[in-house]
Design goal:
With about 150 residues, the chain is mainly alpha-helical. The chain has one domain: Flagellar protein FliS (Four Helix Bundle (Hemerythrin (Met), subunit A)). The protein contains six helices and no strands. The chain has helices spanning about 1-15, 20-40, 45-65, 70-95, 100-125, 130-135. The N and C termini lie far apart (about 45 Å). About 15% of the residues are buried.
Length: about 150
């Protein structure tokens, strides 16, 4: 049975679009952090560590895929947010603090929901993801992009 589940998961990832993979990764990080919180209840230090580490790896993947050259201030601020979240998870792991995990969960859930809404809205307007990638190539100059630091709660 497990073999079929693993094959299904592999096929789902291999056939998913970029935006579906993004949402799957957010869901995965959120799931791992919930598992870490459950492991706190039984004081299972290994499971706490393993699940926090798995979420950290996903966030690090988000950081590594940001287009820092073309993404402008938005990419820089998102990178900084991901860095902050990873630092909080590191501290949660070291100090065994669930409140740090809760904070990261709030941010990841908000980011996932925002991306999901943006993707759905973009598609509902009849656009394709290829159009989005084309639009990214013609982004406004950095000085035309509004500052986001006042809109991000940390």
């Amino acid at each position: 049975m497990n073999q079929y589940v693993n094959q299904y998961k592999k096929t789902a990832v291999n056939t998913a679009s970029k935006e579906q993979i993004l949402l799957m990764l957010y869901d995965g990080a959120i799931k791992f952090l919930h598992k870490a919180k459950l492991a706190f209840e039984t004081n299972d230090i290994e499971q706490i560590h393993n699940n926090i580490t798995r979420a950290e790896r996903i966030i690090t993947e988000f950081q590594s895929t940001l287009d820092m050259e073309n993404g402008g201030r938005f990419a820089q601020e998102l990178y900084s947010l991901y860095e902050y979240l990873n630092n909080r998870l590191f501290m949660a792991n070291m100090k065994k603090r669930t409140d740090y995990i809760d904070e990261v969960l709030r941010h990841l859930t908000e980011l996932r929901d925002t991306w999901r809404e943006a993707i759905m809205k973009f598609k509902a307007e009849g656009h394709t993801m290829a159009e989005l990638e084309s639009m990214a190539e013609n982004e406004p100059a950095e000085e035309e992009i509004p500052r986001l630091e006042n809109d991000i709660e940390i």
